[in-house]
Design a protein that fits this description.
The chain has helices at 4-9, 11-31, 42-52, 82-85, 90-108, 111-126, 129-139, 143-180, 186-220, and strands at 59-62, 70-72, 77-80. The protein is mainly α and 229 residues long. The chain has one domain (4-220). Strands 1-3-2 form a three-stranded mixed sheet. Helix 5 packs across helix 8, helix 5 packs across helix 9 and helix 7 runs antiparallel to helix 8.
């Protein structure tokens, strides 16, 4: 379905994704060396933030992996990696409060989060099915299958774009509330916020990658630039 030309076409996205990941890891590692004055760990900071907002029905669990932190709206569970759950660094607090921000979005009915959650089942299908449909469409010379694959792939693009305001808003909430709740000082928030800003770059890279991939397959299958002789 695609060959070396795909990797050439996607090279800008690969470079951006690599730089964003490197920037996130180095920024997290840098501020992991700064301990918060409050002495709160990431899990304690998240719980304090929930208490401050009057949210008492979200569980906080430790999960394996590096920066595998996430909020699960289905089970109302905040899962934090060991480097965040047990650490009292500004990096850990920043990440924990960011993920707690998603739980706050959920509790307040933040529309982009609701939309992103609704797209999850379709996206799970859309990450595999389009490639199958594209391949079958090309082999069978069936433009209908190609269009269906493009439609499914477009859901992945929409998901990545909707993710941007969701993640930005969660970070914005975290930066404001971690100071208001007495978790960090204003000066500490600036440092913790740099970790969140770096992490946001990975979502920009992901959105750019999905858009570029979508464009490639539209061109490769003839949906864009197709001539009917």
């Amino acid at each position: 379905m695609y060959g070396f030309d795909y990797y050439i076409f996607m090279l800008p996205a690969m470079i951006l994704a690599g730089l964003a990941t490197l920037f996130t890891k180095t920024t997290f590692s840098r501020y992991a060396n700064y301990q918060s004055v409050s002495g709160l760990t990431g899990s304690e900071a998240a719980r304090k933030l929930f208490n401050y907002k009057g949210i008492h029905d979200v569980r906080i669990e430790e999960v394996s992996g590096f920066l595998s932190d996430h909020y699960d709206p289905a089970s109302r569970t905040l899962r934090l990696s060991p480097d965040v759950y047990n650490s009292n660094s500004l990096s850990a607090i920043g990440v924990a409060c960011h993920e707690a921000g998603h739980a706050i979005q959920h509790a307040t009915g933040y529309i982009p989060l609701i939309l992103r959650s609704a797209l999850v089942p379709a996206v799970q299908i859309g990450t595999i099915a389009p490639y199958i449909l594209f391949g079958l469409g090309v082999l069978m010379n069936n433009f209908g299958l190609i269009k269906l694959g493009a439609l499914l792939f477009s859901l992945v693009v929409v998901f990545s774009l909707v993710t941007l305001p969701v993640e930005w808003n969660a970070s914005s909430r975290a930066k404001t509330l971690m100071v208001a709740a007495g978790i960090v000082s204003p000066n500490e928030e600036i440092m913790a916020g740099k970790v969140l800003n770096a992490a946001f770059m990975t979502y920009i890279a992901a959105a750019f990658t999905s858009l570029l991939s979508f464009l490639y397959f539209l061109m490769r299958t003839g949906i864009i630039g197709r001539r009917d002789d």
